[in-house]
Amino acid sequence: MQKISDMSRDDKSKGGKFSGRQGGGKTKKSMARGNAPIKKQQSAPKTPSKTDGIRLNKYIANAGICSRRDADIFISAGNVTVNGNVVTEMGFKVAPTDEVKFDGRSINPDKPEYFLLNKPKGIYVTGSTEKGGKTVMDIMAKATKAKLDPVGKLDTQAMGLLLFTNDGTLAKKLGKPKNGIRQIYQVNLTKPLSVEHLEKIRNGIFLEDGKVIIQDVSFIADRPKNEIGIETRSTKNHVIQRMFKSMGFEVEKLDRVVFGGLTKKDLPRGRFRRLTDQEVINLGML
């Protein structure tokens, strides 16, 4: 079809509305250089890609929800949404950036993976404020191609156990205060602690954000009185350091030796290992 801008002065459109100057009708606006109208660019509505991405039934199967065949049944029944829209089309494909929910719950197409790291001192957990600072993710990059996130917190100067997973459901569960995880720390202080101090800790220490409940605290056998073991389920930030600081003590060394039912056995500092199936089951029961 011929564009208006390509028409000559003698061209007429249907009904003669656009004629040359000779025709005596409506004068056609000059399309000379500089007078051509600017056409507005209209963005086409987004449509699902038919060639890129992964088939929705495979996405669901990879998330461990069900088989591909069963996924097709759930899709046709309207149990699945993509970016908030119900999808019932067979063969529908989704991109890695799409948000897919099954029965209202977000799902991850990657196979759940679980790793335990014995973190060295001076390694950042959530990022570095200093140029060139190393993070735990630099270490865990060697473990898998899956996107792992640390569960819980561990101070930069602290050492010990740190759990990593791409299982958002378990990570959220373990991070809830009401499901506080059993943690045991080995603490070295700059000066000895007295028996009276131990009793005060057992009764709970009040900080600015509430009371810290301690399950157990004791001196480490055959070690100086500035080395103690302490068990807590608290998820407060920097809780061990703040607790001792409130009593006039400084923490010289902090090592998390137990997290849930996980220990440092056969796990050297700076190394990581994959959790066993039984260990994953045990964490899910906490």
What's the structural blueprint in terms of helices and strands?
Blueprint: E1 54-55, H1 56-62, H2 68-76, E2 80-82, E3 85-86, E4 93-94, E5 100-102, E6 105-106, E7 114-119, H3 136-140, E8 149-151, E9 159-165, H4 168-175, E10 183-189, H5 195-202, E11 205-207, E12 210-212, E13 214-219, E14 227-232, H6 239-245, E15 251-259, E16 262-263, E17 272-274, H7 277-284
Parallel strand pairs: 9-15
Antiparallel strand pairs: 1-4, 2-3, 2-5, 5-6, 7-9, 7-17, 8-9, 10-14, 10-15, 11-12, 13-14, 15-16
Helix pairs in contact: 1-2
Level-2 CATH architecture of the largest domain: 2-Layer Sandwich
Assign the CATH superfamily of the largest domain: Alpha-L RNA-binding motif
What helical percentage do the residues reach?
A: 10-25%
Overall average residue pLDDT: 83
* Envelope shape: elongated
User: Beta-strand level of the residues, as a percent range?
Assistant: 15-25%
Tally the structural domains: 3
Query: Regions with pLDDT < 50 over 5+ consecutive residues?
Result: 1-27, 39-50
How many strand elements? 17
What is the number of helices?
7
Radius of gyration, CA atoms, in whole angstroms: 32 Å
Biggest sheet, open or closed, and with what strands and sense? 9 strands, mixed
CATH topology of the largest domain: Alpha-Beta Plaits
Measured between the Cα atoms of the first and last residue, the distance is 70 Å
* Structural class designation: alpha+beta
Instruction: Output the helix-strand order.
Output: EHHEEEEEEHEEHEHEEEEHEEEH
CATH class annotation of the largest domain: Alpha Beta
